[in-house]
Amino acid sequence: MTEYNGYSFFGPSTLKELLEEVALFDGSIAFLAGGTDLIIELKKGKKKPHLVIDVSQIPELNGVHEENGFLHIGSATTFSQLARHPLIVEKGLCLAQAARKIGSEQIRNRGTLGGNIASASPAGDCLPVLLVLEAMITLQNPDGVRRLPLSQVLQGSGRTCLTPNELITGIDFPVLDGGYVSGFEKLGSRTAVTVAKLNLAAVIKVDQENHSITEARIAVGALGETAFRLPDLEQNLVGEINPFLLHLFEDMLTETVDNAISGRYSHPYKREAIRGLAEDMFVNLFGASSVPGGRTHG
């Protein structure tokens, strides 16, 4: 353990070593993985922990593997790893798409999935994705382990259910088999480093033989204190795929914006913008032919 800039710094090489140190330490702790958020908060004095623990070199917290029909992701796995990992691309494509659109290349190389959850930003790109993937989050401290759905982990803007000495160790979700399509779309400023003004994630199960949708999961971000699912929209998408389905999708998303941010300065912009995002999502999921005239918004 070393002293640095007013706090102690510790870099364990195993999860066991980390938990032993946490159990012995009497003071506030901050866990560092990519550091894309935490380092800024430390520099600005927004966080003043007694101990910073770097988890980035712990093998148990890194990587992706499949087991018993689930994909397991270590919390310190970076966005760059997720964007190109063959298991994510094949069996959780929407997460790969979200990872590709996060920030700059430097941020993607450093930022981690666990950090995206712990930061609990209302505009966090991976959060609506993990909601539609029905991901479970594994939390651990010296006293034990608990697994919770993401909706229970997120408590509001910048707030989670994590206790002071608890960290996220893993994320897992059921693999999407051949019957599923999934996608992520984001609207942000046209710069290399962009925070979402709106984001949208979808998982759809399609019955190709009957040309129908048998299951739909839709979530949005940057419309409230946390990302959230849209159960009414999900229910209304189930059924025959027809030329009017996109209009229903657009109308119900517009209604979601109206209910979420009516009266805010961004309301008129977002209620129009989400219609373009809906169209982009249909092209993503079903191809250009799913949109009248093959239109896209890029």
Structure, explained:
It is a single chain. The strands form four sheets. This protein has a five-stranded antiparallel β-sheet with strand order 5-6-11-7-8. Strands 12, 13, 14, 15 and 16 form a five-stranded antiparallel β-sheet that branches. The N and C termini lie far apart (49 Å). The chain is 35% helix and 27% strand. Strand 9 and strand 10 (159-160) form a beta hairpin. The radius of gyration is 20 Å and the shape is globular. The protein has twelve helices and 16 strands. The mean pLDDT is 91. The protein has two domains: 2-54, Uridine Diphospho-n-acetylenolpyruvylglucosamine Reductase, domain 2, CATH 3.30.43; 63-230, Uridine Diphospho-n-acetylenolpyruvylglucosamine Reductase, domain 3. The relative contact order is 0.10. With 298 residues, the protein is of the alpha+beta class. Helix 11 runs antiparallel to helix 12.
Topology:
Elements: E1 2-4, E2 7-10, H1 15-24, E3 29-32, H2 38-44, E4 51-54, E5 64-67, E6 70-74, H3 79-84, H4 86-91, H5 93-100, H6 105-110, H7 113-119, H8 126-132, E7 136-141, E8 144-149, H9 150-153, E9 154-156, E10 159-160, E11 167-174, E12 180-187, E13 198-207, E14 212-221, E15 228-229, H10 231-237, E16 239-240, H11 245-261, H12 267-286
